[in-house]
Amino acid sequence: MCKKYANFYFLQGGGEMGEFFRATDWSKTALGHPESWPQSLRTTVGILLNSKSPMFLWWSDELTCLYNDAYRPSLGKDGKHPSILGMPGKEAWPEIWHIIDPLISKVVEQGESFWYEDLLVPILRNGRLEDVYWTFSYSPVHNDTGNVTGVLVICTETTEKVITSRKIEESDQRFRNTMKQAPVGITILRGPQYIVEMANDAYLQLIDKTETEFTGNPLFDTLPEVEETVHSLLDSVLSTGIAYHGNELPVPIKRYGKRDIFHFDFIYYPLKEGGKITGVIVVVTDVTEKVETRKKIEEDKRLYETITQNTPDLIYAFDLNYRFTYANEALLKMWGRMREDSIGKGMLELGYEPWHAEMHEREIDQVIATKKSIRGEVSFPHALMGIRMYDYIFTPVINEKGEVEAVTGTTRDISDIKNAQNELKKSEEQFRLLADSMPQHIWTSDTDGNLNYFNQSVFDYSGLTPEQVYKDGWLQIVHPDDRDKNIEVWLNAISTGNDFLFEHRFRRHDGEYRWQLSRAIPQRDSNGKIQMWVGTSTEIQEQKIREEKKDEFISIASHEMKTPLTTAKAYLQMLELLLDEDNEEANLYAKKASQSVNRLNELIGELLDVSKIQLGKLNYNITTFDFNDMIDTTVENIQLTSTTHTIVKTGKVDKKVTGDRDRLQQVVINLLTNAIKYSPHSEKVYINVDQKLDKINVSVKDTGIGIAQHSLDKVFDKYHRVEEHAVQFQGLGIGLFVSYEIIQRHHGKLWAESELGEGSTFYFTLPVTNGLQ
Amino acid sequence: MENNRGKCILIYEDNQEILILCKTILTRKHYRVETRLRCENVINDIDSVQPDLVLMDLWIPEIGGEKAVSLIKGNPATRDIPVLLFSANADIKEICKRTNANGYLEKPFDLKTFIATIEEYIK
């Protein structure tokens, strides 16, 4: 076949395609035998076959397909090659003819050439329709007469280039997307103004700004608060091109509506373009939470260190091999050791006796096994204080997996408490022994007034069993008539903390009620807080009967005495009427006798009052009256009978008082006459009245002999008198006793202050409204 | 003083000395004085004496002054006669109220008060 076209120079060479050209029976194609090919076709084919550029030629009206070796790969394997050689174009490229035909027509009709770059022209090759990109030119080939007879396509397949650049673009986009969604904050700053080119979502979130307000603007226009901290750092990166790594840099930022210091880890990368640094890439992580957490942990650690190091309790930790991993100061002191000699050591090494170490090791085993605390008491020799008693507790430290990773312990020195408890127990036993052997009734009560202990005497006396007394209460022993008052007085003592003092009748085992004097005093702790009450009840039946008889006697006797007194007084007054006015001496004697009779009458009156108070028969005539008027009248009356003293009254009360006017007057008389009596060398006594809120205060003051401190409490006792001057001053002190009773009955208070040789002041207060009717 | 002449005061008192004293004082003031040592026949006494004023001791046999006053005040025939309690009892004021006695005289008494009180209450 080669010989067939041997004399056609333009079909020589051309590699494989040359072979095909030469093997083709051209006479069976539209081109006809090469002999008939025009010169322009011959020349073009010659160029085509011998060119290393891929070329394709469509020739004449049928657009017969001709191509060279370089073009072949574009047709792939098992495709159009070599069948389309010499085939009319329309038959060879049916799948893309609609694309090619207009191009060819354009070249043929207009005689112009044109070219395309990276044009997608899918072709059937390698057994399928492939996307193939081409850069190609279409040029007209003129025939010998100057008409366009062929179209030469010189083309390069750019599929690979196009796919590569598309891949680059995609990866760039992917990178940008990745950056945009990266969990770290990224921003790119351009130029010395640090214009924000882009910022990812994380960055925007970090600074609490939107993309529109942040990107495109100079950084410090949007975040002026960070300028001081970061401007110089950015400048340095921009000028030196050396990246800067920042760690936990505190930066003040205004976000979420408030300005605060936040901590950031960040990197400033220089952005190099064309060998020049044109900007900075910023990569930031907000580590504020991490920093704050660490600070909190450090703070907590300091706190715990301080607590554990300074407490007197022993605090320590064991690892799972019973070795100490921590010991506080108190424990080291107890051991008498240095920390470095102790940590990491086991109990035996630290001088614990084997039984002791063994016991704790078993306890630690138990704590590890049960994951529960264990508590115990043990004695141990303290390096300085000797054998002490300790209360300890071991507690498991449980890790996040729920396993015990260590065991901590705290130990408290309870020697003092133990001793005190023992002492208390002992003294309690002694108390009970003592109490049970006493003939008196002894009992105790809690702070609420509930009686919780009775000595044996109570049971012996009442004939009741302890069960009966504890179950049905002690009140069953008390005479029914005395119960209400008993409860009232007892509750009053409980609520005020004042001593309880009460006379009442107890039912004896034989059913007889007999008088008792009960007294209870509160036991207070060092702060003055009441802990309990201790009470005693003593039988006073005999005394009571004697007293009743005595009071009865006084009552009768004083009444009897009044009879001769009545006659004496009247006769004296009648005698005075008969006396000659000029007989001064006789008049004086008569007057003195009258005064004595009057005084005697007063004394009898007071004696009667006392006996009535004792019998509870002192009557009160309650009215509402002008207190000030009562004081003035009384002062006036006393002044009339005193030639030695002037009574100086100060103050005033404008409130009305409800009470027994005569009895209160009796009190004022008593205080004033006492003041006069016990200040023989003075010329004045003072009475002051005033009112504060709903209380009336009265004070009676003298500058007389005064009362010794130890006697001051007793002046209100029955029959007390001021002993120091027993010889000089006669008279029973029952007036004060009566006064005291009267003021108390009015729910007031009467008391005295005095200094020996300086004088005394007696005070009483009265509530304006005292519930009396 | 002259107009006291003929006015009669009935005194109940078991103590002779007091009786003598009162009689002395009142007689000097020209009153007629009747005395009784016991009080249980008080209504009869008044009926026979027809006093202008009664002085009644409290501690007096047989029934006691308080009861006796109640009898006087409880009887329409005698209740208009003024009665003064006459005692050393400190509760005389109270008893006075209780018994509807017209007034009282405390023992021991002041001479002037005694006379003034009698004059005040006598009919």
- Contiguous helical run count of chain A: 22
Strand order within the widest sheet of chain A?
2-1-7-6-3
Structural class of chain B: alpha/beta
List the domain count of chain A as a whole number: 6
Any low-confidence stretches of chain B, pLDDT <50, length ≥5?
none
Outline:
Chain A contains 22 helices and 29 strands. Chain A is an alpha+beta fold and 773 residues long.
Question: What would your notes on this structure say?
Answer:
- The complex is a heterodimer of chains A (773) and B (123).
- Chain A is elongated and about 205 Å long.
- In chain A, strands 2-1-7-6-3 form a 5-stranded antiparallel beta sheet, sandwiched between helices.
- Chain A contains 22 helices and 29 strands.
- Helices cover 40% and strands 28% of the residues of chain A.
- Chain A folds into 6 domains: 9-163, Beta-Lactamase (2-Layer Sandwich); 182-292, PAS domain (Beta-Lactamase, 2-Layer Sandwich), CATH 3.30.450; 311-413, Beta-Lactamase (2-Layer Sandwich); 419-539, PAS domain (Beta-Lactamase, 2-Layer Sandwich); 545-608; 619-767, Histidine kinase-like ATPase, C-terminal domain (Heat Shock Protein 90).
- By secondary structure, chain A is an alpha+beta fold.
- Chain B has a single domain, classed as Response regulator (Rossmann fold, 3-Layer(aba) Sandwich), CATH 3.40.50.2300.
- The two termini of chain B are 14 Å apart.
- The longest helix of chain B is centred in the N-terminal third of the chain and has 13 residues, at 16-28.
- Chain B contains 5 helices and 5 strands.
- With 123 residues, chain B is an alpha/beta fold.
- Chain B has a 5-stranded parallel beta sheet with strand order 2-1-3-4-5, sandwiched between helices.
- The mean pLDDT of chain B is 90.
- The A-B interface holds A 558-559, 562-571, 573-574, 577, 597, 601, 605, 608-609, 612, 619, 621 and B 15, 17-18, 21, 24-25, 59, 88-91, 93-94, 107-112, 114.
